């Protein structure tokens, strides 16, 4: 029976985007399933002791940029360290990811393409044309996803539910990959450890 990995993510997170392609490879290698759960990390930070980027010390912000540069090279991703549209208003994109999931589409790949829009292509997720193009790159039709999905109020309720699910699971940062045992792997730099855990399962 396939293992289901619960994937707590933020579309605005460079770390979510940076690990997304490798995570997809690992999932495919082990035949695992992915339960994609976009979350509101503002409330999660408030309850778990984290700080949003603007409130972090200059030292931490500088180190973050250094780490982004290092991991950009390690992962081989042409990521802009300070993109023009970060943070992006991602609510409509989150709704589309959840709608894709509910319709049995590849919500993970869609989330990757939304990340690429911000971090590689210097685009804003608040732009409907950007979302449509990202969906198309993922082999999906944004208009059809919206038309065939539930109303926004239901999608927003699920977004809130996933945030609460994350808190109950002990998640405090994005991305987090959680095994059925409850073991959490926080950050794209833990993907090699997730790979090791799946190999040993």
Description:
The chain has helices spanning 14-30, 41-48, 58-75, 91-102, 107-119, 128-137, 142-148, 152-169, 191-200; strands spanning 4-9, 33-38, 176-178, 184-186. The relative contact order is 0.21. The longest helix is centred in the first third of the chain and has 18 residues, at 58-75. The protein is globular, with a radius of gyration of 16 Å. Helix 1 packs antiparallel against helix 5 (107-119) and helix 1 packs parallel to helix 9. Helices cover 56% and strands 9% of the residues. It is of the alpha+beta class and 201 residues long.
Defining key terms:
single chain; 201 residues; alpha+beta; four-stranded mixed beta sheet; 9 helices; 56% helix; globular
Q: Biggest sheet: strands side by side, in what order?
A: 2-1-3-4
Instruction: Give the proportion of residues in helices.
Output: 55-70%
**What order do the SSEs take from the amino end to the carboxyl end, as H and E?**
EHEHHHHHHHEEH
Number of helices: 9
Q: Please, what is the average pLDDT?
A: 97
Binned strand content: 5-15%
Radius of gyration: 16 Å
Shape: globular
**Structure classification:** alpha+beta
Strand segment count? 4
Unreliable runs: none
Biggest sheet: strands, sense, closure? 4 strands, mixed
Distance between the termini: 12 Å
In short:
By secondary structure, the protein is an alpha+beta fold. The protein is 56% helix and 9% strand.
SSE map:
Layout: E1 4-9, H1 14-30, E2 33-38, H2 41-48, H3 58-75, H4 91-102, H5 107-119, H6 128-137, H7 142-148, H8 152-169, E3 176-178, E4 184-186, H9 191-200
Parallel strand pairs: 1-2
Antiparallel strand pairs: 1-3, 3-4
Helix pairs in contact: 1-3, 1-5, 1-9, 2-8, 4-5, 4-8, 5-6
